[in-house]
Amino acid sequence: MATSVFEVDCHVHAGAERRGVALQQFEAALRERGIRCAGLVDHAEFYIADKPRPFVEALRGAGCPYAENADGFVAFCGDVRALRASSDLRLACGLESEFIDRTPQDLLGPPDFVAHCFKVRGDGKDFGVEAAERIRRFAAWVRPSGKPAVVHHPFRCRVLAYRELLARGEAPAPERFITPDDVRRIADAVGEAGLFIEVNLSTVHSIGDSPEALALYVHAVRLLIAEGPRLTLGSDAHGTAGLALTAGMRRAVSETGLTPAHLQAACDRLFGGTCAA
Ligand SMILES: [Zn+2]
Ligand SMILES: [Zn+2]
Q1: Total-model pTM
Q2: Distance in Å, CA 200 to ligand 1 centroid
Q3: Does residue 276 belong to any structural domain of this protein?
């Protein structure tokens, strides 16, 4: 078992967004950070024909090493597997899809795992109900592939919405904005489908300027851990600079009570064994 949760990072963007940096350089940066198990992912939307426009514009011409089609994604997964064969790190390749309705099933074949880029804010609706509905749709979509599947950053958009309310002086108490019922519904949807769900470090980074929003995030993750779903931990780094751990991230994770034991199932399923040396 890992001795620190930070030895595991299941969400590192290392495909189209590598921007010309060799995967070997990426591996060196992971090792320097003390990571032993890394999930290297790329956005499905980069490789599909029916692309959400702004997304592609942001990546195009930025030194992307892969073709913008299914062959490009096959090449990315091949590069990760080639590196894995010669690396002392445990590596897995993953597909992260936001627009699951536009992502063809054949993109689910190449990766070791599939993740959902979860963007539910819960505006004007019951957050827990909408989130659980969304998770069940993802579960149904990924199930035929038989791949391990992860819900990425489940509270990110909800916490960002809270920060907007804070700025307007309209925020309710944290425990009323993400409730135990909300989190139970999310954990139930994840548990019944055998999914994993992420504790996401970039969420901490995005709201680091707001102690109240950070308190909401820690509160939500504590509730999630108490519900007992299988967890991953992810930096959501886009590029090697995003791998750096800030004091705020370390503090937030320690306040949630996350331990290596919570990540053991993910280490077993995604990386085929323990994340120990
Ligand atoms: Zn995402
Ligand atoms: Zn991501």
Answers
A1: 0.95
A2: 10
A3: no
Distance 126 CA to ligand 2 centre (A): 25
Does some domain include residue 277? no
Which domain covers residue 123, as residue numbers? 5-270
Residue 16's contacts (CB-CB under 8 Å, 6 or more residues apart) are 42, 43, 46, 59, 64, 65, 66, 72, 76
pLDDT tens for 112-149 read: 999 999 999 998 779 999 999 999 999 999 999 999 99
Does 89 map to a domain?
yes
What residues have their beta carbon closer than 5 A to ion ligand 2? 96, 236
Whether 67 is covered by a domain: the verdict is: yes
pLDDT digits (tens, 9 = 90+) for 214-267: 999 999 999 999 999 999 999 999 888 889 999 999 999 999 999 999 999 999
Instruction: Note the ligand closest to the C-alpha atom of 237.
Output: 2
**What is the Cβ-side half-sphere exposure of residue 106, based on CA atoms within 13 angstroms?**
9
CA of 96 to the centre of ligand 2 (A): 7
